[in-house]
Amino acid sequence: MTILKLVVVICSQLYFVNSRSVTLSLQSHPNLLPPSSPLLPLCTAPGHFIHSPIKYNKYLQSLVSIAKSSSLESKIDAYLRAPSSASTTLLEEVTNLTSTAAQATTSTSLGLSIYEASMALGSYEPFCAMIQSAFSNSHNFNKSSDLELEVVCGGNAPPFKMSLSSLSITALEKICPISSFDAMQSHHDQHLIPGEVPFNSPHQYNSSGDITPPPPPLVILRGVIGSLAFREAFEFLLASRLKFVARGGLFVPSIPPPPTVKRVKSVVGYGARLDIKNVEYKSWEEDPAATSRESSLENSASKQNNDKDKDNDNDNDKDNNFSLPTSPSLPTLSNLKHISLQAASYINSSPDPLSTLQTLSQNLPSYASPLSALPLTPSIQTSARFNERSPFLSNWFGGGNTMVYVNGRQIDVGKSTFNMFELMDVIRQEEELIGEVKKLNLGQNQETKVLRAAINPSDFDANFDAAATTSTTTATTTTTATTTRIDVGRGGKHAVTYINDIEKESSYNSYSPSLNSLVEHYSSGMAQFMPPPPIKKNLYTFLVPLDIFNRGSDGFKGVEVAFRLLQSKVPVRIGILLVDSNSTADNKFEFSNSQNDTMSFDLTPANFHSPATNELVSGLFKFAVKNRKDVAGENMGVSGGVMGVQFLATINAIKGEGRMTIGQVLKSYSQVFSPAFTDLATSTITTDHLYKTHYLASLNFAITKNIPSRNPPIFVNGIPISMDALESTVSQVIQEEQYRLAVLVGNRKISDRTKSIYAKLLTGEGVYDRYHVLLSEGSLGGRYEEGLTGEEKFVVVEMEEVEVEVEVEVEVEVEMDATTQQQTLPPTPATTAIIAKLDLNTLNGAASLEAINNLVASSNTTIIMISVHHCGAKKHNKKPKSKMCGGPDQEQSISVNGRILPHDFAQLPVTVEDLRLLIKVVSSRAIKLTKILGSQDATKISLVSAFLGNQPAIERVVIENEFAALQKDGGLYFEYNTEWEEDQHDNNIVVAAVLDPLSEPAQRISPLLIFIRDTLKLRLHVLLAPKTEITDLNEIPIIKSYYRFVGADPTSPFAVFDDLPTNHVLTLRLDVPDSFAVSKKVAVEDTDSLRCESSNSCVDTTVEFELKNLIVQGRCYERSDSKVIVAPPNGLQLVLENNNATAVSDTVVMLNLGYYQMRSHPGLMSISMKNNSKGVDVFEEVDRKVFVRDYLGGMENFVVERKEGMEGVGVVSEVGGSGDGDDTIHVFSLCTGGLYERFLKIMMLSVSKRTSKPVKFWLLENYLSPSFKESAKMLAKELGFEVEFVTYKWPHWLRHQTELQRIIWGYKILFLDVLFPIDVKKVIYIDADQVLRADLVELWDMDLDGKAYAYTPFCSSREETLGYQFWKQGFWEEHLGDLNYHISALYVVDLEVFRRDKVGDILRATYMQLSANPESLANLDQDLPNFIQETVPIFSLPQDWLWCESWCSEESKGTAKTIDLCNNPLHKEPKLAMAKRVVDGDLFEENWVQLDDEVKMLELRSGIKVGVAELPSLTL
Questions:
Q1: Which of 208, 838, 1298, 1393 counts the most CB atoms within 10 A of its CB?
Q2: Is 532 helix (H, G, I), strand (E, B) or coil?
Q3: Contact partners, residue 837, CB within 8 Å, separation at least 6
């Protein structure tokens, strides 16, 4: 024992001295990004400004102007003529040009810093590549005179090219027919890059009131920015009246660059991780000494740690250089109890806490032992425990204890697909907001306050301007999405008919009884991708006002949407308010509550031809719902509420044929229920006075709540949603309500004991008693005046301009200039300003003006400033003089302080009540603005109010208030760049980070925090949130992980791992953004098992990955006839094409969220249905334009509609294309690591030798090495089979796995429906470590009895391992019952059945449910299909189809058709040794060594170099 310990110490020291280094880089595919060029910045830099049209055009003009005024234009032309003689300083000069133009374009120094940082990161090279792809022919310029002028007319006319000399308006008017001008604008938009606004965009009216000609065609100029030819064309177009856009391409010499010039580029924005590998089963040829050493290190880790940590602790107290010793060994769990607190203490004592945070988090395996020996700091421990209990830091709010905010906007740094380009884009957006505030010209002090108001909308009252405020601890979490509610709960007891009750009905007993399920769902981080959890509470109450006989009403659409949510197990309670438009219009009925007043109908057959009434339908419907239990008994458990809605649906479907008769209504009722039930219903409603009373109550309720009779909104928890915006808004509202409810639960405002959650939501601020269309605008953010400058003149219209006689007596308490009719500043400043743009020649326009008169006359609290503009026809055909009016079709409007009153002037005039409500809505903002602006000037208030109202809806957290509720002292809080002046706008972006110092997000974000602090110099607040106690290693997953993030230092686009201890086997994996499609390019060593064979064999390793494509992804949904989005068109085949109509990628739509994914390169792309697929016959044409122009990715969502007569027709049953037919056997496999790649080649060889039909292998490319792919192609050629590499990016919405082995398992089962082309009907999966002994044709031809897949049951014939058969005990024994548990090493998939039955979607949905528990799915790839056997049955293959020594007896080996090298729980035999032993003897035509040697001989003969881990010992 003593000798063993001595060996451990010596080996540990030797290994630590001989540390190794790993360098990793990510290169772009040569054809993905533009090549290196001294002119590259001229092509990429405009991409920074494309999001801001005004800045984009200004930047282009600056580039052209600065190049012209300097000598650079001539140097660029010289380079275009002779690239080889270009100045060595040209790139530097071009870079300076682009920076100078950026400085002239941006309004802040921060904006310039963001621009320069983004350029250094290469953020806009995809933008340049997109511009390049738009060029014709070679897509590049190769001559200095090359310009491309493309003309876009209107209609469906294709673009055409013209020369500059022949370009003129006259020429274009001859080419583009006048008749097409009307359609030009929409057609032009299809050819613009999002964010582009053409130069010379015409206005219908110019400043003098003259009408300009119709919009001319659109001209697209392409050329080399900075060249003389481009400048001349640009200046010519700018001086003309032609509408044009300018795009700068990249010059590429016609002569290929020399071999020394690399076309590939390093890409940044990803993370690299080296995980310490689980070596329970050795997956390489063993060095006995190494094995002993490894085992000894593990067994003696505890003592080593204790000994070393004592020394480290003593040294650290005296360490003037502030460095913590490292150790190659990992401490035991007992020593890790307070390591997070110890890390916080050490970081706090550092002179540079952020650098120390990065060092510790990214290298924790080396620092864990000495760190765990440091003493605890009491103040840090106290503060951490206090903060840990804060709701803000708890998991209840979805962030856990790692969050990053930019001006309150949360950045998700917790996901492995974190995209730093998104972070940079958010910072850019916030800087642009600063620039927009500066344009208000308010003065620096006021601008700062307005900026803070825009960033923190909670400064305004939650009741107004749709600023919704919810609270975590101090009412500081805000969202600009609406929480304006109408109290449609109180007073509706007998008026509203609820067809279901989640809380009371037994049919919902399977739902969770606790609101904690909602909190857990939200804290999982998947709430945005999954529907709300089924909870037995009335969490979401839908109220649908419905006039069933109103032909112009789409009210039933609301019922359809609610039912669809209910069917998805969203706990929706549905209430229906049956109204009668004729009765409720203008309050044309008298409410009666008489005990003797009953419904009086003549329901005899003689009167069946009479028109039916809403009152009759109401009575029948309410009777069915009231007797829901009796109805359920008659209709196989379907409740009366559901059947009642079916009755309404029947009437809704018939109503378009004309007014229904009594007989038709009763017939429909009998068909839905029964004749006997109909007789009972008619008898009851005509004798029971309550049915009459309740009907009248419904009408009265609609009037009391001011619910409009025509096109009423639906209400979700009181939130009004207009029917027009229903399909685009309801999901968002449900999502927001889910968050608000989770917050209320977290703050203990509601609980399982709350009597009525609905009533709770309809109480308090932001709740109105009556509905007004103004209040339903919250879902859209409201409409505000655009283009206000603060210089508007407040005038009253000159009535001599009006054709008709209108009496105008607008009395405002202002002084008027007698000559100009323009007001001067009033003696007392005004806080309310009305702008009215009315057609006073119409009755409604004149009546609206009268309402303004009456409002002013009755106002005694606020001085109102009025600006009335007549925007109709003028006397003597005078043209409008007011700039406030648009063209002849300009809609009428009235706004108060910039907020526009939503109103249909064609139907009704504006009333005084409308104006008063609008003033009430904006008054809070006016009061607030009065305080922060220090002025009551209505013009300024209108300007700022409109500006704030036009800001996009962005959810923010007021982080300063949250931090105020935490303990920041004690060493957990750090702040940087806080010395700033109140009026210094450039420092108004605040980044706040809350980090567990020993977490994956800390590894990822810590270098970026340094970048934010030192490069961007933003105000930065960092709060450490360490875990106060570690009880499980899963709480610190980075204890076995080294990490590097590439991108925080643009000058070093590599991941470098130095001083790695060599006693561990390491596995390399990348964390890349969702938009990246990456594969391995160069790897000399096995990156799955990086190790040192002996103490002196450690070598430095270099690995290169390649960015091959950018991902285009999104969601596709189907829209029904009623324009309601229903469900994804599962199996719809999509294709992605470039601008030359060449297919780039294809896929099928999943049922899960309608998700699809395709691979692309930068450029103008379009998504359409695949030719000759069934979807083309079923759905209307799809042509979705996609601009792939950056690394941000994003979701491309779109909707498809069925063709008439194609209702219910599926698209997944067909096989599209020609395909290979049944003669080819398709085999799928995957692996990672050099040893398993070696196994995979032997498996492929054995399959090709034994199979009598052609074979095609489909191999997952994601984790294969370059040398293997080369070898596989060679084997295919030599052995006569086919091989194709497939790939798929793990979707962002599907819970990710962190261990590489589990990731591989996920790919093995989760994406079978989308991995292969649609014409592949069947596939056989075979594990890489198998050897085939039989002909696969037998398996291929086997009848699966209609099942989607077939697996082999686990053997149970080896007695030694019976005790290890987990499937025969505990959970699995109970769950499976009489069913088999199957092994996933080999299976057959009938892809046609698999897709038709949506098995992939079922597997993914089940995976999402089970993987929420990290203890479940221990064997993911086989647990998942075995778990859902009741839903998706498995066809059990004969036992002979898979033999595994661990579970199968030696006697059964003789009939085995495949041999699998599965791990044996009795001993940890290395894989290679097992392969050589098991695949040997008389049962095999060639033993494993002979098969291995055959592969190696083929590789040597072909000149293929194999990795070190693959080299065999040839026995020739």
A1: 838
A2: coil
A3: 869, 871, 884, 885, 890, 892, 893, 894
Is the distance from CB of 1022 to CB of 993 less than 8 angstroms?
yes
- The 8-class DSSP code of residue 795 comes to B
Report whether 765 contacts 461 (CB < 8 A): yes
| Helix (H/G/I), strand (E/B), else coil: 1072 | coil
Beta carbons within 8 Å of 1212's beta carbon, 6+ residues apart: 1130, 1131, 1148, 1395, 1396, 1398
Under 8 Å between Cβ of 1480 and 1487: yes
CB 1223 within 8 A of CB 1144: no
- The β-bridge relationship of strands 1143-1148 and 1255-1260 is unpaired
Q: What is the mean pLDDT of residues 312-323?
A: 42
Q: What count of other Cβ atoms lies within 10 Å of the Cβ of residue 978?
A: 10
Selection from 1112, 1135, 1115, 1323 nearest residue 1216 by Cα: 1135
| Contact yes or no for 401/996 (Cβ under 8 A) | yes
Q: How far apart are CA 1077 and CA 1059, in angstroms?
A: 30
Query: Partners of 1147 in the beta sheet?
Result: 1134
Q: Let me know: does 408 contact 959? Beta carbons within 8 Å.
A: yes
Distance CA 864, CA 856 (A): 7
The type of residue at 824 is T
d(CA 323, CA 316): 8
Using DSSP's 3-state secondary structure scheme, residue 747 falls into coil
Q: How far is CA 1297 from CA 417, 1088, 1111, 1307, in A?
A: 12, 16, 20, 11
Q: Which pLDDT value is given to residue 983? A: 45
Which string of DSSP letters, residue by residue, matches 843-899? HHHHHHHHHHHHHHHH--SS-EEEEEEE-S-BGGGPPP--TT--STTPPPEEEETTE
Task: Report helix, strand or coil for 1260.
Answer: strand
Q: Which amino acid is at 40?
A: L
Nearest residue to 631 (alpha-carbon basis) of 664, 669, 666, 575: 669
- 3-state SS assignment for residue 994: strand
Q: What dihedral do alpha carbons 466, 469, 470, 474 form, nearest 10°?
A: 180
Q: Residue 170: is it exposed, middle or buried by C-beta count within 10 angstroms (0-12/13-18/19+)?
A: exposed
What is the C-alpha separation between 906 and 1018, in angstroms, rounded?
A: 52
Whole-structure pTM over 0.85, yes or no? no
φ/ψ of residue 105, rounded to 5: -95, -40
The pair of structure tokens assigned to 1425 is 């299909």
- Angstrom distance (rounded) from CA 585 to CA 709: 6
Residue length of the chain: 1516
Judged against a pLDDT cut of 60, whether residue 259 lies above it is answered with: no
- The b-or-e profile of 1145-1164 (16+ CB within 10 A means b, else e) is bbbbbbbbbbbbbbbbbbbb
Reduced 3-state DSSP string for 1187-1232: EECCCCCCECCEEEEECCCCCCCCCCCCCCCCCCCCCCEEEEECCC
**Nearest-angstrom CA–CA distance, 852 and 831:** 16
Matching residue, tokens 């640009």: 234
Residue-wise pLDDT for 138-164, tens only, equals: 344 444 456 888 888 766 667 777 777
Residue 69's contacts (CB-CB under 8 Å, 6 or more residues apart) are: none
pLDDT at 467: 31
Average pLDDT on 1255-1282 reads 94
Residue 483: per-residue pLDDT: 73
Name the region of 480 (left: φ>0; alpha: ψ -120 to 50; beta: rest). alpha
Residues 122, 45 contacting (CB under 8 angstroms): no
The mean-pLDDT minimum among 83-97, 473-487, 513-527 falls in 473-487
Q: Which of 584-588, 852-856, 1284-1288 has the lowest average pLDDT? A: 584-588
Say if CB 39 and CB 251 are below 8 A apart: yes
DSSP per-residue letters across 1287-1333: --PPPTTSPPP-SHHHHHHHHHHTTHHHHS-TT--EEEEE-TTEEE-
